[in-house]
Amino acid sequence: MYSVSIIGASGYTGAQLVQLVIQHPKLVLAGTYVSQNSSDAGKGIAELHGNLAHVDATLTPISDAALEEMANGVDFIFLATPHEASHDWMPILSSGKAKVLDLSGAFRLKDTDVFEQFYGFPHTQKQSLAQAVYGLAEWHEAKIASADVIAVPGCYPTASLSALKPLAHNNLLDESVRPVINAVSGVSGAGRKASLTTSYFEVSLQAYGVLGHRHTPEIEAYLGTPVIFTPHLGNFKRGILATVTVKVKAGTTSAQLEQAYTDAYADKPIVRLRKSFPKIDDVAHTPFVDLHWKLDETSGYAVVTAAIDNVMKGAASQAIQCLNIMTKQPVETGLVL
Amino acid sequence: MYSVSIIGASGYTGAQLVQLVIQHPKLVLAGTYVSQNSSDAGKGIAELHGNLAHVDATLTPISDAALEEMANGVDFIFLATPHEASHDWMPILSSGKAKVLDLSGAFRLKDTDVFEQFYGFPHTQKQSLAQAVYGLAEWHEAKIASADVIAVPGCYPTASLSALKPLAHNNLLDESVRPVINAVSGVSGAGRKASLTTSYFEVSLQAYGVLGHRHTPEIEAYLGTPVIFTPHLGNFKRGILATVTVKVKAGTTSAQLEQAYTDAYADKPIVRLRKSFPKIDDVAHTPFVDLHWKLDETSGYAVVTAAIDNVMKGAASQAIQCLNIMTKQPVETGLVL
Amino acid sequence: MYSVSIIGASGYTGAQLVQLVIQHPKLVLAGTYVSQNSSDAGKGIAELHGNLAHVDATLTPISDAALEEMANGVDFIFLATPHEASHDWMPILSSGKAKVLDLSGAFRLKDTDVFEQFYGFPHTQKQSLAQAVYGLAEWHEAKIASADVIAVPGCYPTASLSALKPLAHNNLLDESVRPVINAVSGVSGAGRKASLTTSYFEVSLQAYGVLGHRHTPEIEAYLGTPVIFTPHLGNFKRGILATVTVKVKAGTTSAQLEQAYTDAYADKPIVRLRKSFPKIDDVAHTPFVDLHWKLDETSGYAVVTAAIDNVMKGAASQAIQCLNIMTKQPVETGLVL
Amino acid sequence: MYSVSIIGASGYTGAQLVQLVIQHPKLVLAGTYVSQNSSDAGKGIAELHGNLAHVDATLTPISDAALEEMANGVDFIFLATPHEASHDWMPILSSGKAKVLDLSGAFRLKDTDVFEQFYGFPHTQKQSLAQAVYGLAEWHEAKIASADVIAVPGCYPTASLSALKPLAHNNLLDESVRPVINAVSGVSGAGRKASLTTSYFEVSLQAYGVLGHRHTPEIEAYLGTPVIFTPHLGNFKRGILATVTVKVKAGTTSAQLEQAYTDAYADKPIVRLRKSFPKIDDVAHTPFVDLHWKLDETSGYAVVTAAIDNVMKGAASQAIQCLNIMTKQPVETGLVL
């Protein structure tokens, strides 16, 4: 059994992690923490998240002393914290025996200039950044297996890269035309906080972050080619549907695409290569990535859609996948029941 | 033509009033105001309410001077303001030629003890309170016609009283058993503000204000008998469905109920006596009250449901109905197109 | 390990049963069946239910021979079939070693006159009916443990009885006033079929089956007192919220209600006595019943709300609870992870 | 006053037309019709569409005689009928004084080979087809003004062309890269019929008609350049959001795009050039097209989003716009109140 602490357990991702840790056969929940000045400090998690009404876990305010102690006190630490907190706390947390899985954006971009441009503060944890492995579970398994620090991918990049990497990996993309990624996310992606933007009356399908969202450089860094990424806020709670339009190299056939996707995912239990275009509800509350594509061989344009649950594969369950890899368990342990 | 000013035009009711005034053949919009310290002061209404993107109206911060001037400067003033603001401003606003229609709860309850208990502050505007006429348009037409101050009814009371008054009026209720009102409201009922309670992820059908909601004494005051009222927050934007269960006096027949509803509403264009139980969407974005009922003559229990749009008949369009009555126009003018 | 066959696996309840059987540590899925003339016969369940895209199970058309064989071939048979099919097949299915859990309404009402009135066909399986035990897991544990045939309760009765039985059991209800049950169900309650009534555009909160729904006699039979039950169709996919208004005997205190609910449920892991009124989403995709209540000691009226997932505790997971009881496992096995 | 008959008034578009005709100051509703074998024949429209519960109009079954009579009996005929019916009836309907506005796809594509490929039946009404004017109101005003037969544009093409035509018209598009149109439609787009695909439980954001939807050739025909169009079904009732990604010619500036959109739409009251990206709810239940765009001058990629109500600007209100043009009234008459 491995012991796990979760910092930032008051949010949607944190609460999902609590549930996944509890249901995992090899994990035991050591502690759940929130920031020291959180109004939720001291509350039971059941108070905040009605679906966890049967769970007895208190949201302990985190202190410097607790951070230090945790670094040697548990096997794994999940950070479901703001970028700044993850950035600041990583050196202490990763200084002991504990391995750290960070679900914020603090350690995903290796280029600190790009980081500062998109996240609004300078990155000063160069050593942790060098150490961090990008936890896209189906693509970086070897590196994840031996990592001490994992930068769990963002939700949109997980969906987008799952769709695009088989094509890029097999050198099938016509690089004169940028892949166009249109993605729609459920409101949980905005986090648990009071905001007019995410109030029920206001939410209605809408583009945002157009030509400037911080997940764009993340997708580009791990795909290796520039893209046009347009996120949208959708009127649902969980899930992302990414619709990706690409131009493939002249002469590319459907059989080649089929091969590329099969090679990439046939032995990956979390990716389901579907026979029709998936819907959000197919994957909501699950750890799966559902993929389907169609190519017009004449024009060379292909459309791929990827559906994930943003709180699961886009955050919490992908972190568990990484932990499973790090502990040499089957990647779906505790996830596919 | 009558000139109209709207105070509190930044909220959902205020914005609805703007739209109704603009589309009304006899009204002209003189001004739209918000409180002096509102972060929306100076903005265009189009910025806040995308559906009014074609409307050119600025949200002017209201001042004491402006209040005074308005009292003689326009024909009608709509107050879509917090209870406290309506309470404090009413004497000034009603001191001139303007007639005032208040959409807050400040002037609905004549009993100031009950008011203080449910609204949390003492009522000190006794004269305005004495003057105020409860604007339930189908039931208080004569008084509304000659009123200077209208207390526009609450959303839940409008739905509940529309269903119950024909029965009470005809003395059909078995008073040993309280009417049970279960009502579900769309999120607009909570107003336009950032709140975790009304954030998209959190909203899911739930009872609230159980056995203590401030609309209970309002319903009881204008019905004349105690009720059990249980409001719920529903996962939709606009509308209220009130399901009312009553016991009628022994021997009461369906024909008697039919007569009671027909007598009350046959000549009321805003009330639609339906042939089946109405849904929320039948009335959303409309000024209508849709009613249907069924009686079990054996047991004496009857179920009545009333559907309204809470922002319309539950607020803005009922205010326009009152204005129409006060100006001797057909009650549906500018509402049923 | 126990082997399980599911008849009617193409519907929402059937698909949920498939998932629950797969994730249960002591169950193995022996077969999934549909009616012989179903257009889904021969398809994979993954084709019909995207969330089960990773499940390899074929929908076999059921034949008389298969029914007979199944009766001795497996340990448990789940019937997620129309009332008529359950009624007709029960004698054969229950003639062998297999125990049968029927999720239709065919064996819930012991009074065959009432049955015929509400279900529209005469009940001719008197022996099976006599044999059937009503599977309300928290209340009929002893009888369920030794049963061969279980009539799994309806969704509305499960929510309603969970709320009301502690009060009736402790003789707290004022019987001169009928309990009023207002319940709202998600659309899955209507089953998986093409229908204008349940088409996305048409669904909007609405009462139906007023003063005549077939779950009324079921509630009354197992509560022991008449009720007024008004179901509503809500604009969500899963879940039921039942809001129950009762009058308790004069002098009844909140402490007495507290005791009644604690006595009934303190040791029942599937029932969560909440500290605030539950919402649908607290229980969606879970096996839980969430309960909360409030009493006005002055008037003697109390409001209790019960939230369940209609496909789970209202159908599939309650069937699994029964199976757990029948096999002497903890009742939450395979359900609370 | 002009008299109007509506054929196909039982569907969502037909019902919307009824409402728009009733509220139009210059139109009078002469009749509402359904096909002869419709199960709705003889019913009141109020029975089918709860929001029209106050409207007294019967759905008359249409006969050959009625078609002929109508051609000379009214001023305008709206066809909200299946493609086949519009195709077959057009010669008779357009043989008299009545002008015909067809909301089906029967007369939009001038190329009958393409028509047959996408609509599945051969086009045999060459004369009517030659006569028909494509009713994209902001772009074909002159031709519409003198037309006898209008092919009212499809919903997706209306949104897509509104976004793209200013760019194509000003020759700003880099033609080596196809515009990518991702659009999400509310369920009303699928029409009023029982179908598992549009049942409430099944609807969840999903791509469909990928690389083969019949609106693709319509967009291409009236844009003049090939596109990649991917429609999606969204979990909402009304509205379309089209997100269009284009590459503009090297060196194109934001000022040039601004000019293009202003030139096209500054004097068009139905198009609202927004200051931020619009949401579906900004236009639901309205006749407006809301547009906003952003250009990355470095890469030359621009994103434009267009929001419309599919039942209004995507069908019924655009038909009224055409009628207004044909009768020399301001285009927004009866639409913007």
TrEMBL record, chains A, B, C, D:
Decide whether keyword Chaperone is in the record.
no
A GO cellular component annotated for this chain's UniProt record is: cytoplasm
The record, for Pfam families, names:
Semialdhyde_dh, Semialdhyde_dhC_1
A biological process (GO) of this protein is: L-arginine biosynthetic process
**Keyword DNA damage listed:** no
Which residues are named in the active-site annotation?
A: C155
Cell location: Cytoplasm
One MF term from GO for this chain?
NADP+ binding
Top EC group: oxidoreductase
Function summary = Catalyzes the NADPH-dependent reduction of N-acetyl-5-glutamyl phosphate to yield N-acetyl-L-glutamate 5-semialdehyde.
Q: Which NCBIfam families does the entry mention?
A: argC
This one is known as N-acetyl-gamma-glutamyl-phosphate reductase
Organism annotation = Alteromonas portus
